[in-house]
Design goal:
single chain, alpha/beta, Aldehyde Dehydrogenase, Chain A, domain 1, Aldehyde Dehydrogenase, Chain A, domain 2, 2 domains, 14 helices, 22 strands, 22% strand, globular, binds NADP nicotinamide-adenine-dinucleotide phosphate, oxidoreductase, succinate-semialdehyde dehydrogenase (NAD+) activity
């Protein structure tokens, strides 16, 4: 089984763009083949829209905005809830699509679907809790009233590493707020996005409210950022592309949310519980074969626990099972493409050339050209590429340190500030170091930090804004202030 035949519900296999509630298969910019990274097999051939067709999708979303924003919040909530229920009912099929086009193990893909659906459930609830404010005015007889209103048409551009969750983390709050959306999924993972559109359709989300366009990134991104009818751009991906989209959006002064690259440090102090620290590192490092923005990119381990940490880490990493996502017990799938493999090889070669030791792994895996052995490096320093750049692969580099101040200085020595992790038992140290680390999210004695209740996002060049949580919906709302005269306590007539 290679494609559509792997699904229980063949209707979730969609290979056309979704605009105004209809499937668009005549892309004016040709077609693109989609490959399975584990096998290299062609999965589907998808239409590529041209700039005019993307403009049409924006027009459609603008036309749908008026009626959608006027629907009572409770109605929008019900439709989102139905979308959540359908995602949950079809979780296995959604996970199969993720495995096929992205390569992660099936169990992890199921986890991603549950995570993706949790945002739809959460924001279905939050839709009903949108509220403004009334403030005491400085002058007599006045009231200051603050209303929250939806921003308008939002454009979302998403990456391949979490093909479902990176869409729902944006679409759910946008639709809950009363915005409409045009999504451009990553070119390597459109099938999951299109299945989500099919489920949105079945849930009864009206035509034009949620649209998925396909096409060359620069063409689609160029139109979405230049078009003045798009009022907000919400992006998850590399810092490099985020910077470009911000530049392109400057001409039309769009609101922007940016979830960008990371280079997360993980600090292990002498007083940490060894097993908890190693398991925490493996949980954050090897999820999705190291291809997550919040993956710990580099571990700093204090001298007293260093050797025991490296030994236990290598033992556990060496036992990770590599293979195709549908095989039983597989924990590591392929990397997404040949460029990803080259980056991993380059980071290892650079580290070894500068004195690092390969403790386990270190080479491509015999399962196929995009598979790589889970790897541990010791003797790593700040001078190496692997501590300075996001590796996005299954490589765990370990740097030895002596003092807390030294570890925090190395951890913060990066333009990124998405996530950081620390492992220790001393409560005062946990607070002190958490306060000193420059990151939007900190895992304290845990490698697992993502859920729909917590605000997800970075500082420095890792991004702008937050997704999920009670704060996430504000990213899709404007404040409108009414200066209300003649509204104070007066003599009754
Ligand atoms: P990417 O190359 O920046 O691509 C992300 C999205 O941007 C894709 O849809 C891509 O389209 C599109 N894109 C590329 N060039 C574009 C352009 N010139 N104009 C408009 N759109 C353009 O990133 P990626 O390799 O997919 O994902 C990995 C990166 O995402 C890592 O840096 C990771 O840290 C980051 N990330 C961050 C978060 C977070 O929440 N902070 C979460 C996940 C990933 P095509 O696919 O069609 O090229």
């Amino acid at each position: 089984m290679t494609g559509r035949d792997i699904l229980s519900d063949a209707g979730l296999w969609r290979d056309a763009a979704y605009v105004n509630g209809a499937w668009v298969s005549d892309g004016k910019a040709g077609t693109m083949d989609l490959c399975n990274p584990a096998t290299g097999a062609t999965l589907a051939t998808l239409p590529q829209l041209d700039a005019g067709q993307v403009r049409d999708a924006v027009e459609v979303a603008e036309a749908a905005f008026g009626p959608w924003r006027l629907r009572p919040a409770k109605d929008r909530a019900k439709l989102l809830r139905r979308w959540f229920d359908l995602m949950t009912a079809h979780a296995d099929d959604l996970a199969r699509l993720i495995v096929l086009e992205e390569g992660k193990p099936f169990a992890e893909a199921k986890g991603e679907v549950a995570y993706a659906a949790s945002f739809v459930e959460w924001f279905a609830e939050e839709a009903k809790r949108i509220r403004g404010d009334v403030m005491a005015a400085p002058e007599a007889g006045r009231r200051i009233v603050v209303l929250k209103e939806p921003v308008g048409v939002c454009a979302a551009i998403t990456p391949w590493n979490f093909p479902a969750a990176m869409i729902t983390r944006k679409a759910a709050p946008a639709l809950a707020a009363g915005c409409t959306m045009v999504v451009k999924p990553a070119g390597q993972t459109p099938l999951t996005a299109l299945a989500l559109a099919e489920l949105a359709h079945r849930a009864g989300i009206p035509a034009g409210v949620f649209n998925v366009v396909l096409g060359r990134a620069s063409v689609v991104g160029g139109e979405l950022t230049a078009n003045p009818k798009v009022r907000k751009i919400t992006f998850t991906g590399s810092t490099e592309v985020g910077r470009l989209l911000l530049e392109q959006s400057a001409a039309t002064i769009k609101k922007a949310s940016m979830e960008l690259g990371g280079n997360a440090p993980l600090l292990v102090f002498d007083d940490a519980d060894l097993e908890t620290a190693v398991d925490g590192f493996i949980a954050t490092k090897y999820r999705n074969t190291g291809q997550a923005c919040i993956s710990a990119n580099r571990a700093y381990v204090q001298a007293g626990i260093h050797d025991a940490f490296v030994a236990l880490l290598a033992e556990k990493v060496g036992a990770l099972k590599v293979g195709e996502g549908f095989e039983d017990g597989v924990q590591q799938g392929p990397l997404i493409d040949a460029a990803a493999v080259e980056k991993v090889k380059d980071h290892i070669a650079d580290a070894v050339a500068h004195g690092a030791q390969v403790v386990c792994g270190g080479a491509t895996h015999n399962r196929g050209p995009l598979f790589f052995q889970p790897t541990v490096l010791s003797g790593v320093t700040q001078a190496m590429k692997i501590t300075r750049e996001e590796t996005f692969g299954p490589i765990a580099p370990v740097v030895k340190f002596e003092t807390e101040a030294e570890a925090v200085a190395m951890a913060n020595d990066t333009e990124f500030g998405l996530a950081a992790y620390l492992f220790a038992r001393d409560g005062a140290r946990l607070w002190r170091v958490s306060a000193a680390l420059e990151a939007g999210m900190i895992g304290v004695n845990t490698g697992l930090i993502s859920n729909e209740v917590a605000p997800f996002g970075g500082i420095k060049q890792s991004g702008i804004g937050r997704e999920g949580s009670v704060y996430g919906i504000d990213e899709f709302m404007e404040q409108k202030y009414l200066a209300w005269a003649g509204a104070g306590e007066a003599k009754l007539v």
